[in-house]
């Protein structure tokens, strides 16, 4: 067997679209993952898996409605950067969009709690390992 040959099952690629909602003060919304789920208690950017037939932008619009009860449009989403991280069992590819224009007040419909945080304070929160490289991009932007 050559040294490059995989010795275990190839991990699948999981495409998740996430969004940094930004308020008028330049703070970003993070949401605490519910008990009982993978990475429970960690703070994440709202978003979720891209379903068959969806664009990542459509996923974000749908997830923001489902998770936070707010409305936005795909035209209100600007791509910022992406996360690429190997978790046990799958590789995560996660585009991160920024959204400053939305309608309604975010509510924790599927999370334990929500928090508006200044980007330079995001490192104070326990976030999934995939998210750490995203923080400098938000600090630079905001
Ligand atoms: N939404 C979101 N997911 C993230 C972030 N960082 C990160 O590693 N992930 C991972 O991306 C995947 C997103 O899955 P999800 O939120 O749609 O699904 P889930 O694990 O809640 O499960 P389910 O919706 O199937 O019940 C999870 O494995 C989650 O750990 C993030 O900042 N936001």
UniProtKB/TrEMBL annotation:
The name this protein goes by in its record: 8-oxo-dGTP diphosphatase
GO terms assigned for molecular function: 8-oxo-7,8-dihydrodeoxyguanosine triphosphate pyrophosphatase activity; 8-oxo-7,8-dihydroguanosine triphosphate pyrophosphatase activity; 8-oxo-dGDP phosphatase activity; 8-oxo-GDP phosphatase activity; metal ion binding
GO biological process: DNA repair; DNA replication
The protein's required cofactors: Mg(2+)
Lineage: Bacteria, Pseudomonadati, Pseudomonadota, Alphaproteobacteria, Hyphomicrobiales
Reaction(s) catalysed by this chain's protein: 8-oxo-dGTP + H2O = 8-oxo-dGMP + diphosphate + H(+); 8-oxo-GTP + H2O = 8-oxo-GMP + diphosphate + H(+)
Keywords: DNA damage, DNA repair, DNA replication, Hydrolase, Magnesium, Metal-binding, Mutator protein
Keyword Cell wall biogenesis/degradation recorded: no
Family: Belongs to the Nudix hydrolase family.
């Amino acid at each position: 067997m050559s040294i490059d040959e995989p010795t275990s099952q190839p991990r699948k690629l999981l495409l998740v679209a996430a969004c940094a909602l930004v308020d008028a003060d330049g703070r970003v919304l993070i949401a605490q993952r519910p008990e009982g789920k993978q990475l429970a208690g960690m703070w994440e950017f709202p978003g979720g898996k891209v379903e068959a037939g969806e664009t990542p932008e459509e996923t974000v619009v749908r997830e923001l409605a489902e998770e936070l009860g707010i409305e936005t449009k795909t035209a209100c989403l600007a791509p910022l950067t992406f996360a690429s991280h190997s978790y046990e069992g799958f590789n995560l590819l996660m585009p991160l969009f920024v959204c400053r224009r939305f309608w309604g007040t975010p509510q924790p419909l599927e999370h334990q709690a929500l928090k508006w945080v200044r980007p330079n304070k995001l490192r104070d929160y326990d976030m999934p390992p995939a998210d750490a490289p995203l923080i400098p991009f938000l600090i630079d932007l905001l």
